[in-house]
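Note to self: user wants both folds in one dump. Writing first protein now.
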Amino acid sequence: MSIAIIKNSILNGSVAIPPSKSAAHRALACAFLAGGGSVSPIISSNDMRAMQQVIDALKSGERVIDCIESGNTLRFMLPVAAALGREVTFVGSGRLPERPITEYLRLFPQHGVSCRATNGKIPLALSGKLTSGDYEIAGNISSQYITGLLFALPLLEGDSRIVLTTKLESKPYVDMTLKVMRDFGVTADETDYGYFVPGNQQYAVRDYTVEADWSQAAFFLAAGAIGGEVILTGLDMSSVQGDKEIVNVLKRFGADIEIGEDCIISRKSALSGTEIDASDIPDTVPALAVTAAFANGKTVIKGAERLRLKESDRIESVAENLRRMGISVEETADGMIITGGKPHGAELLGYNDHRIVMAFSVAAAYADGESTITEANAIDKTYPTFFEDYAKLGGKINVIGNGK
């Protein structure tokens, strides 16, 4: 097991944010369907390796498709494989076999594809070819289902409709999908019922440049707001990435955020608790919860119930680690209530969850005393160079061991 040992420090300086995992995932899927073109830059992470591995398997006609631990890859590529008429079995590891795919198990048989699964989860065997039509689906389960269908339905004979039976949460992620699809010459129209997807479309071959990742920027923006001055480069303020909203949420905490011509600066400021609806920005919750721990008063985070189905139950994971640092936390069904204070060093749990490890590395920097975090190598899932960037900013960290 890898353990990060972190001593008190102040994070200052400049860091270039890596390319967006979410944008790269989408561009790789589109490039595969186009039949060519490059996608770059891509960070060498486990999630990117999972997507490329699945694409290579589909290209070579393999019958077993291994998504490793990547939920995005699984939910994006299941409909794609079905639309291509592939007879394959999707598998995965880590917590991925525990994550639901029930919407596909309900929808695929209605549209020509036979499914064999275990208790509604992977391994999942597909046979048959997806047909066009109406796809009724709840919008408050996971936007990844919507993205997967949006990738696949343009390939079919005939037009299709994605009919949302509830309000769509994490809509910015679907907006990103539509944007990347347009970049590859494929369209779908947002409607009052959901999305209209014309059939018989062809993805265009092109070389694609991946923008920087706002989800990863959240950790260093929080670090600056809590106790330093951190300059982030490479971010696009006109991006459709939903996690760009982290800037406005931190400002509500009272953070000193400056938007420059080619950088964003986050500086230490007096922070006060606020209320956060995380329904469209769930990935920022660990970073925001850590910020709340250093803010005066109470912070209420709601709309985050889907966090219980991530790499860990992130509501439970965040709450447990904050309690270990001496912070009062009340879990709710869809979030938590945090009473800020003075976090102290503690033995923290990484839960094999990249966002938990990164968020609490920031918390540990400003906590009184030394902290340790287990399963620190979980960062390899999305941001393998996080600790290097953390150290460049002055973070005092020593990672021991490489195994999980």
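First done. Writing the second protein, which came from a different request thread.
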Amino acid sequence: MTRAMVFPGQGSQSVGMQADLASEYPVVQRTYAEASEVLGYDLWSLVQDGATEKLSETVVTQPAMLTAGTAAYRAWKAAGGEDPGQVAGHSLGEYSALVASDAIDFGDALKVVSRRAQLMQNAVPVGVGAMAAVLGLDDDSVINACDEASLIGVAEPVNFNTPGQVVIAGHKDALDRALVLLEAAGARRAVMLPVSVPSHSSLMIGAGEALQEALAAADFRRPKFTVVAATDGKPYTDADDIRARLSRQVHAPVHWVTTVNAMIQNGATSIIECGPGRVLSGLCRRISKSTPVSFIDSIDSLQKSLQV
């Protein structure tokens, strides 16, 4: 049996997340305390008692989700879970995957992610950028609609999440046009998402380039087990490769279907989502209906995952 683990990114956060897990595994709150020391504010209190709007701010969400993924993995290890054979992360989740694989220390990763969040938030003025979800169309149809909408601004597919589920990003005006074209092409649903940062689009190229300074300052190492990059489904190799690909990742599309299929082709017999929420486990089930999938977002689900 060869387990793969996947780590969620932005969108899986919620106020009160991991409270149940923390009640059984003290390492969860210790992880948040460690993060608070780096960040300069009480992250656990914010996550447990703060406003949803505050937690949803990119500059808060990104370090919070890195911390949540790391805390879930540490709880897994505290419960007797073995290291997985492979890990991957969806967008921001790649940082949690790299921490789990000992490719970077948690504190260093927090510093990089905090800078990443600031750069992404500042890259495009609020109200100018947007993201939208498209359901029920093949990839080529989505790409064609974006190409046509790009006549008035940036409109690009940025997350290939499952067959028939693609997220697009770019300038809001261009995405408005793309949604009209996508509905005309037969999309079952095409709707704007409640975010203003057009993540993984070419509008983030400057942010990715600016992130190189923070990446250069961080101490990266060769992972102790395979970390599959979500931009192309290929493993990270050494420190220089990690730095280069994390810089590019800010403005490169997430190919989640390719990533999950690569892990299965490389021998994964089960997949465990390590972090709050169940977004990725749902995507993985749709990508490979025959692969057992579980998640770790509570005491009960962790115990069940140990049996998968």
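Dump finished. Worth passing along: Residues 58-78 form the longest helix (21 residues).
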